[in-house]
Amino acid sequence: SEGTAPPTPTSPILLPVLDVLRSGGDAGVDVAEKIRLFWGTAERFMAAGGMGFCSMVGEQPVSVCMSAFIDGDVHCVDMETSEAFRRQGHGAATAGAFRQACQDTAVTMHWSCMEENVASYRLARKIGLVEVGTYTTLGIYYDESVE
Description:
Elements: E1 13-16, H1 17-23, H2 31-39, H3 42-47, E2 52-57, E3 60-71, E4 74-81, H4 90-104, E5 108-110, H5 118-126
Parallel strand pairs: 4-5
Antiparallel strand pairs: 1-2, 2-3, 3-4
């Protein structure tokens, strides 16, 4: 007897970050907070040439890949996928769309992640990025016992 083929997963629905920001939804990834964190305002994001994409489930952005910092023609990425929607293609869709937008506009996509962030590294490789180097980061750790 013939078996039925498993259902084909549908491609994630992608929207530009600014369209999601204008819709004002507050569930899922907080796109407005990301804009505030990195740019202060949507106007500064737009003026700098920022770009990005969200993967949507209904009205909810569940993954975002966007310009966090821009230096000349280099766009440094911020990438986040809501935990409940990981490993479902949303991150690959948004990151892949961002990569394509960078290629289409002749800018460089810069993706960095900590060595222990294996999921981020694998996603970068999945969308075709190659490792070009490693670097040391410095940080300040505060003693929480001191008030």
